[in-house]
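Summary for the steering committee. The consortium agreed at its last meeting that each partner would contribute one worked example illustrating the joint modelling workflow. Our contribution is presented below. We chose a case with several input lines so that the handling of multiple components could be demonstrated. No manual editing was applied between input and output; the record is shown as generated.
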Amino acid sequence: MDQKSTEVDLGYARIDVDRAARTGDAEVVYGAGKTPAQIVGAMRALSQAHPDRPVLATRLSPEARELCRRELPGAAVDDVGRTATLGPSAPRTGCVAVVCAGTADLPVLRECATTVNVFGAHTDEIVDVGVAGLHRLLAQRDRIAASDVIVAVAGMEAALPSVLGGLTGLPLIAVPTSIGYGWHMDGLTAWLATLNTCAPGVLTVNVDNGFGAGVAAARIARRSLSSLRSLGAEPDA
Amino acid sequence: MDQKSTEVDLGYARIDVDRAARTGDAEVVYGAGKTPAQIVGAMRALSQAHPDRPVLATRLSPEARELCRRELPGAAVDDVGRTATLGPSAPRTGCVAVVCAGTADLPVLRECATTVNVFGAHTDEIVDVGVAGLHRLLAQRDRIAASDVIVAVAGMEAALPSVLGGLTGLPLIAVPTSIGYGWHMDGLTAWLATLNTCAPGVLTVNVDNGFGAGVAAARIARRSLSSLRSLGAEPDA
Amino acid sequence: MDQKSTEVDLGYARIDVDRAARTGDAEVVYGAGKTPAQIVGAMRALSQAHPDRPVLATRLSPEARELCRRELPGAAVDDVGRTATLGPSAPRTGCVAVVCAGTADLPVLRECATTVNVFGAHTDEIVDVGVAGLHRLLAQRDRIAASDVIVAVAGMEAALPSVLGGLTGLPLIAVPTSIGYGWHMDGLTAWLATLNTCAPGVLTVNVDNGFGAGVAAARIARRSLSSLRSLGAEPDA
Amino acid sequence: MDQKSTEVDLGYARIDVDRAARTGDAEVVYGAGKTPAQIVGAMRALSQAHPDRPVLATRLSPEARELCRRELPGAAVDDVGRTATLGPSAPRTGCVAVVCAGTADLPVLRECATTVNVFGAHTDEIVDVGVAGLHRLLAQRDRIAASDVIVAVAGMEAALPSVLGGLTGLPLIAVPTSIGYGWHMDGLTAWLATLNTCAPGVLTVNVDNGFGAGVAAARIARRSLSSLRSLGAEPDA
Amino acid sequence: MDQKSTEVDLGYARIDVDRAARTGDAEVVYGAGKTPAQIVGAMRALSQAHPDRPVLATRLSPEARELCRRELPGAAVDDVGRTATLGPSAPRTGCVAVVCAGTADLPVLRECATTVNVFGAHTDEIVDVGVAGLHRLLAQRDRIAASDVIVAVAGMEAALPSVLGGLTGLPLIAVPTSIGYGWHMDGLTAWLATLNTCAPGVLTVNVDNGFGAGVAAARIARRSLSSLRSLGAEPDA
Amino acid sequence: MDQKSTEVDLGYARIDVDRAARTGDAEVVYGAGKTPAQIVGAMRALSQAHPDRPVLATRLSPEARELCRRELPGAAVDDVGRTATLGPSAPRTGCVAVVCAGTADLPVLRECATTVNVFGAHTDEIVDVGVAGLHRLLAQRDRIAASDVIVAVAGMEAALPSVLGGLTGLPLIAVPTSIGYGWHMDGLTAWLATLNTCAPGVLTVNVDNGFGAGVAAARIARRSLSSLRSLGAEPDA
Amino acid sequence: MDQKSTEVDLGYARIDVDRAARTGDAEVVYGAGKTPAQIVGAMRALSQAHPDRPVLATRLSPEARELCRRELPGAAVDDVGRTATLGPSAPRTGCVAVVCAGTADLPVLRECATTVNVFGAHTDEIVDVGVAGLHRLLAQRDRIAASDVIVAVAGMEAALPSVLGGLTGLPLIAVPTSIGYGWHMDGLTAWLATLNTCAPGVLTVNVDNGFGAGVAAARIARRSLSSLRSLGAEPDA
Amino acid sequence: MDQKSTEVDLGYARIDVDRAARTGDAEVVYGAGKTPAQIVGAMRALSQAHPDRPVLATRLSPEARELCRRELPGAAVDDVGRTATLGPSAPRTGCVAVVCAGTADLPVLRECATTVNVFGAHTDEIVDVGVAGLHRLLAQRDRIAASDVIVAVAGMEAALPSVLGGLTGLPLIAVPTSIGYGWHMDGLTAWLATLNTCAPGVLTVNVDNGFGAGVAAARIARRSLSSLRSLGAEPDA
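What follows is the complete predicted structure of the assembly.
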């Protein structure tokens, strides 16, 4: 196949339809700053080029989600995580525990979980386990330990990754969020906290970047030894 | 008594020897930026003006501590907390639990505890209760709950105040410290974390300001109802 | 009682109705980012679970306050402090002086004062005592000294806590506010000032965090020795 | 076994000798801020408590490395990475490609590689593949693709992780370093770059934190499917 | 000619119509913060004062572009680059390659390219050559090398100038953009990256400043030796 | 006189000996970053060019002050303010009150006061009037009001200018200093405070810039109406 | 006169009607954050309390200016400077040159000039003298030198105060503005520039604070020796 | 020629001896962080590989310059610019005016000028033309206008590039320096100023980066039309 044929020209963008072959990942439309029509057009083009693979769109406005529902009948649209998915489900191996403290972090958690699924791994979503209520967190300890990799979504002072990091030796990705009550410098507080955690080996991504954490977590989970085990299980919420 | 007589002129500084009468506190010599001789001179002048009250000096260099030992025979000098205390002990009522995660935070914890004692309250020092080892922290829960006010000294991501704040309804003061492994902007990380804690009602002071936290904690403890109880107890380390 | 029964599931959030038992505090609904319906629903659920205790909602939009007035007949709604309170008054002991420089700081002062009352202490609100008009501040000196703890709400350069800290030895909490005329970095100026005050023992909370200061002040006041005295007094505005 | 027996008291610190059992990791002595004698003492105590496991010490000063050489005969000391390792090698499965642009980043790369080995995975170190000399980087493409996880150590503008992220779908950890020629704010430039990479799924740690990246990479590699394959290979430099 | 006659007074501004004589450049109306009527008025005045030279207006709102179309019949209006040009084309010598990674950077690229043309040089616009798809960039290498100066427009982590700087010895101007997915501090990330590039000799301008880069690039290109050659070529898109 | 003759060439610098004629000010040697020999050489050259005017050198190291004492017999050297003055006194008119809170601010106050004198105005130095001891400040109120302009030198939270600004309508210059106990960002706290003061009309200079404030204050004082009065008075310390 | 009678209670604020007696200044209503009705009410109350003095209101919204025009017949309303003035003109002595580079800085210049007039000094407004067109600035040199004090209003890189400071020895106040084309951090660039000027003795105020500069400049000008001269002149625009 | 033969392996570094062939530039050894012996070794290796081309070393410590003098007999060592040059002079075409305000900026100016010469262009160094002494700058106007490109080195508020940009239409590169008297954030002030200049088309490099500016300026000058003219002239200092 020659170089040219890996791209689809939509007029407003050339889409690289062969990226998955190079990296093993799904194709993604980043919705922020695009019109609903551009998003739907890009999703359709990518889906037609690769009918055997899912297409994910993220950061969709209410208008974009509405148009996806109307124009892309088979699409799964998530209003909390602001995503749409088109095409067949990806086969899933390995499991990612996606954990957060409260309802304010749910949009980031959902964006992450959907990304994990589209990129080929199972998810186990665990909400309401903030460090100011330790009994709830400790009650979920075994469930978390059963996964291949943990994504801890945390705003405010972002203490959750540190506490989780002391309870487990699993790969652990922290997603700082821009959630807070006062002067937190748009998430800088949570970001600095995740980078300065006293628990060794915690990895991090940009503020509110549930998508990036999901891509990385899926890559780790689907090549995990324990993923052999998890092929039968379906913990996804 | 006229205005003039409340001050002692040492040549390099006029010392206000009547501050305690206005605020109820001890007199303090802030040692940073002063020569050992200036520190010793200031302590002696304050002690002579008020032989019935203790004098505290903080942030002492090794040389200043050495001179205090040599020139002020009755002084109690603490090499960890970098303090010296001269004169009679203050009567103590109420108890402050001073808590930290590890040995790196000890200098700030010791500065705080000595300040609490000099300003008239008991202390209970609890070290090595970091959030990455929750079992240690939970094991000290009852001991912490027995105090009138908690001072939580914490560096790095400073998750300790948040976890403590979920375990108790006592007044809680967080002291962020400049301890960290990587890029933490000289304690800004810990500082922001203590101000953005998800546990309501946590108070904070400046980075590494064990003295300030100690003054505030003593003021709270010594006017506490439970201080009636604590007059007999002596938990100070 | 088992673990489960301490939570109420509202669909969009699980509410911890037993927090007060652990910490001695009231239950609070943080209104920012929630719909009016969610706020009213959460207040009603908490009030039904604990009909003997007040429920506080903060940071309410005009729409949320309107719905509280319509749907929660017994609720006390404060348009300045942007709060609503439901249920019986908490018994009050001890007194908090809540002080600010001018009308621009009133919303934060009111949020703080209502929180103090709901968390079980009296309040004495003192407005218009900025440092650029010292005679006003000095005229209120005795009134301030009669409280158990002071909350000083201050924007701009936030000099008020420093001046108060030199006039009294009471526990003193500074609330920096985001009020200012020019480039003040959203309250960073006031925040830095309160943390660098030359008066020892000043405690601080996040910018505009009247709620957090109120929780802390009430905890200090209600366990204060002098609270024995204040049971008869009613200085609340 | 009771709680107490998992700690060794050295006078200046209580060492938690059972951490590995909880997390599956080795024990580590963080050398910065400790005296050479304290470091040697801590390494010896941990090694005696667990003679079957390696002990790693990081951020060692020249004096500390000298004392390790003299007092701990079996220790492997690395002057570039500033580490010392004591005890038997850990069994290794899976392989981490540790990549950097130039000699200035070597200390961080070596700290990372040694950590990976001690935490149980093989390493393949690839130096001098900066983006300003693309031909060198492209020449190593197959070698990098043969690993289970990549650690990209990069200072200045830190473009390396982005370029690598476009060439592979492997898990990829970026370590920003404080290396630079001009005003780079102590590594903030590299740090921001790694968090804003245009390649999806890049994870990051704090500036210069080769240790943290090594812990995370080893955890991912040693539970990787392809680690079955790598048991025979020995690419470590 | 006296001093006065070089200015045109429009009531709301005195316009310096002789600037070009001093610097050799065209006249420019910076549209941000001006009303559509003010912009059209200023363009007309400048064009009448110098009917032999083009007038450029930048940062035009949709309303301003609409009015330009209606009121200035001969004007060329660009909705992507948000510019309008009035009057005869400037003679062009030398060629500027204007390069960017993706569609999000197109507005800045177009503003830059139009500025280059108005200030007297040819342009060759090359889009979609981001570093995460190296094969695209390498495919355009010869085309880029055929110019006199390169302008690299790059957002996010802005790795493009570094990679280009390693492939060529041409004068190279980086334009960091405020394009990004997460916490990038309004373009600070890209800005810092362009200033810390590992490729020597990269010049930079302010974030999103396509105009400034265009002015500088045209000045370099039109006095370039190779501009003798380029007089016949017309690579402008 | 031709252009050339206004400069003296010392080899390492051309000195502009005619600046005073243009601005009415004295000549100044900024000592930071210069060797003692360079400083002495520059002072001598300026003094010989204008034997009727004083020469001021600022920010002198101990070594530079020592050399000034040895090589410039008539020089007045101030070890607190780190200045040296050579040549005849300037005639003085008008009076500047230079005020600070404590001994830590003395070096900046002295640099300012000496500058005021050299630039032709009287000074009245008032030390130890911090806002945490209001009675001291109020006791000096009349003395401050008797000057033509006030310079308020203040570190930490820098509340002094605000309080002074409420007590007087005189021109008021604040000099923030880098004095502080904790995290104050090298004087940013004081700087922001002086710029956000609630007292209208407060002017400010850079952190620790006693020299700049002195130049400005002298310019204001010596052209003041009341300077007619002050010609006989000599309040300088 | 007793304390009470110096204040007027409007319900939403107590207004200090005796401030002018203490500081010699006019009374001012800061309009930002107040409703049009509150502003008009405050102006009227202050004017009635002191019918012999002008009242100034600043930072007025279009709606507030409209209401001032309708409700306060004698008020002078300035739509550029966003101010309203009520009552008799203040007597003026001394003259302030208010200078800026371009039309973008006009609102700040007008706010400043009106404040100067209300606070009792003449003004000479000089616009369009930016440093990128030196000939314009040099042409106004004598006019500037004829004033008692200069206010230089400057945005972007704020080079104007430095250039002016080299041309004159008059008191000079810089007002940095938030005007800029690219990434200038809301005026931080201009602010830092004015504080780091190479011309000695430049004073500064907060970003865009034309009011503060005007108060200070008037205080300097009206007590200036040359104000004797200026009583006859009327340079105000 | 195969890939390998373009590199020389020195044990501690592989040196790319063929970079010049790719980019047309000289080879450079960045001296910061290297030992004197490593620097001398690298210079010798590069010089032997390309005896027909100069080798430049920058940021040399006094010790490194001493060793260069001793070990590399033909080397030209500059103590002000901290550079050493080895091998034959590069042929020079075109001319760069390198301009600065004062002696404090000389090290950066000299580093830049030497780099320009080594990279193949003439230089004209013009010192002491700060904006606070406009007459000096205007006196050099014709000399500056005779060059092909200007490098303006400027610290403090960095107003020089703006003033120069208004006087000329030549390509103009600003080098902000970390020179300043007070709080300037290590050159951030100058950096922001150069990026926010009101003169269009000013390019910039990192703080103190005389080398980078020199590389860029030489690339522009040596391909300049006027370089045909300048082959005979020798303005280099």
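The CA atoms of residues 14 and 156 of chain H lie 39 Å apart. Residues 36-49 of chain H form the longest helix (14 residues).
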